[in-house]
Amino acid sequence: MAAEKNYVSIPPDSTGKKILLSHTAHIFYSGLTDQNYIWIIGGRYWLNQGFTVHVHGHTAITSTTGILEVHYPESQVINNIEPIVGESIKDPSNVTIIATVASAEDIYINSNVIVGGDNPNYYWDIDRSGAGKITFNEGAAEVSVFGSLRTSNQKLIASYMFQKNTLPQAFSNALIGNGSIVYQPNYQATELVVGDTLNDQATHTSNLYHPYIPGSGTLTVLATRIEDAGQDGLVRNWGAFDATDGFFFQLFGTELRVVHRSTLAGSGSTNNSWVAQENWNVDRVDGTGGGGNISGMQLDITKNNMYWVDFGHLGGHKIRWGVYYKGERLVVHEMAMENIGLHNAISNPNRPICWATKCISASPGYVGTKSMYAYGAGVWVESSVNVLEEGTLHLTKQSYTIPATSTSTNYVFSTRPVEQIDGLENHSLYIPKTLEVSSWDSTDDTVDVRTELRVFAPCVMRGVNYEKEPYSNLEIDTDGDHLSHGPEILSKIIKGTGKIDFNEILTTLQTGTISVNAETTTSVRSQAITQVIGNNDASGIGTLRARITIGTNPYTTAIRHYFADRQVITISGLSETGPNSLNGNPYYLSLISGDDAVLYENLADLDDDRVVREITVSDATSIVVGDTITVVGAGDAVVTDINGLVISVEGRTNAALDVGLTGAAFTTSPGGGSGTVTSVAEQTAAYPKDYETILQAVDGTGWATLTEGTSATNIGLITGLPPTTIPWTFMIRTLSSKANPISTRFNLLFKERIQ
After folding, report:
1. How far apart are CA 295 and CA 322, in angstroms?
2. Over the stretch 513-528, which tens digit does the pLDDT of each residue have?
3. What does the alpha-carbon distance between residue 274 and residue 239 come to, in Å, rounded to a whole number?
């Protein structure tokens, strides 16, 4: 008779009155293939008959024999199907033989059970500690990863809503081959699109690596939808992860999984440990019901669902994956790491949000493009700790002398985090605390001066010379050439000494910290080109070179350069004969204004043009700074400095005015000097630089069409790696002219949270 394992009959009515029993079983095994094998408690192991048994306990007898405490699938219990002596026990992936069934015995538990009045199949669930499951009328109580009842003490770290765009300032994108990111305004969603060619890839990774607090859990929630139920050769991932570590859901082909990704320190080897949906150990959400699907939910990944991951870190601890269903928070799989692994589950517990899709087959089971959709996310730390106050205090000091009579805004310094620390990606957080600025007459330090402090993030700069600060992982530039203002984030009028308290301005971790962007070596951004001129006097001194004008900055939405000076980019989309010869080629940008640049084929030529030439002359008595010097057979240049018979020049119009030139006659205008060039040398100091010489830049002479575009509409794209971070630029100006130079001092106090 079927289902005999679920009850015992009361004689003499052997087919009448019955008492419900709880059934479990012991499987005695032998022939353990790996004596160091650790049985997965909660895992489902396969038998040759084609069904799994759920292991809830294990006792070793010898090194190769032991007892497994198991539950059978409900259908096997009803049909009285039991393990067969001699059949193999395989691992949860149904691939590797672990041991052999020696014998099996049923265990019947006679106990009082509290059942529901409307349905006796609803009975009280008792856990392994003997505790009864307690729920509320709106679902189960939420328990943190560290076992605390979740109340209102969760602290929001960051929230991401794609209400107007893909949040390009908050996310980085690794786009390979036919991979792209598209904003869908009708759905307020970010669409990740990937093609059908091997290694086509699209990712959307938050720049913020959300901080982990020891002794607390981190909860990540993501709204995600997949376009289809899965395609062979295509992988979709979503969760709290990057290329090296993390926890996420994965649709691998048509198989839904949860994945634990880790990279071992020192080895560089990345391991992806995954569990398929059919082996999830809490709720398979496959719609089958019963003990393996206690919620009854059938997860449809083609619909918008809210997925979540929470985890502890130190000492291994627990990782959980889950979804929401009918207002209830469901755990689908959990992985206990404590007392199991040799190390922590991941190398860096500070995890970003990420959605990613990639074609992994040269002949996938689909043609064209496939999509997944990101609708938003949030990250919480299960602690009331103020993460903005985490970190070590540091102080950086900068001094600057404002020239006498200057009323313009003067560049003082820029600061940004270093990209790497000891060869590892730097995802640390930098929190400005206070800024103190003092200004006084350089000839009398008792006379205070009224100044305006201005802070931008970022500005358009060229020729920057960042150097790492001692005792912190910030780097400072004081030598760069400021071309154009970016977004102004602070302006303050100061009389003498003033102090700015950033605690009153920056109150959230998401917007109040500076950090290195994610995926700095693989992320991709594009900016529109609005005009190309092939034979243009870009320098303003008579040298004709190709010039490009750019459109809207994808970060600031202003018409300002997004890509950095000296950065390699690729040009695409130009159509006119002549300018279209730039398509598909890598070039290095040499910025000449806030929205213009010339191009170089290599950095060596760009840097060589920027080295100041020093000309030794026979007579310098009539030469003044600002004169144009004309050298017979070697073109013109502008005098920038005079030191005895040595004059420094910029804006050379002829390559002949270089090292090795001697004996050529010269004249100057309007100074009226004349004489002979004795020698030409390169300046040994790195700064100042010559930004006016562009002799070795790309030349558009001979193009059939010398001009494409009008600066009003987009005609092409420049594409490349985005800036690694958004520097803060500090500037100052006096509010009235002074007879003497003005001394200034900047003291910036900040905190660095290493992660």
Report:
1. 12
2. 999 999 988 999 999 9
3. 14
659 shares a domain with 705: no
Residue 455 CB-half CA count within 13 A: 17
Strands in 610-670 per DSSP E: 613-617, 628-631, 635-643, 646-650, 665-669
Same domain, 465 and 444: yes
Whether 425 and 552 map to the same domain: the answer is no
Q: Provide the total of helices (H) and of strands (E) in the chain, helices listed first.
A: 2, 54
Taking CA atoms, 50 is separated from 45, 77, 83, 84, 284, in Å, by: 10, 14, 11, 12, 18
Structure tokens at 404: 């006498």
Q: Tokens for 293?
A: 């699907």
DSSP 156: E
Instruction: Answer yes or no: are the C-beta atoms of 496 and 447 closer than 8 Å.
Output: no
Closest among 654, 652, 658, 655 to 640, alpha carbons compared = 652
Span between the terminal Cα atoms of the chain, in Å: 62
Please indicate, yes or no, whether residues 96 and 34 belong to a single structural domain of this protein: yes
Is residue 455 within 8 Å of 432, Cβ to Cβ? Answer: no
User: Closest Cα to residue 246, out of 372, 358, 379, 348?
Assistant: 348
- Take residue 261 and report the two structure tokens written for it: 């990704």
**Position 127: which residue type?**
D
pTM given for the model: 0.82
In whole angstroms, what is the distance from residue 667 CA to residue 676 CA?
9
Kindly report, residue by residue over 224-253, the tens digit of the pLDDT. 999 999 999 999 999 999 999 999 999 999
Phi then psi dihedrals of residue 364, to 5 deg: -70, 170
d(CA 335, CA 365): 32
pLDDT tens digits for range 628-654: 999 999 999 999 999 999 999 999 999
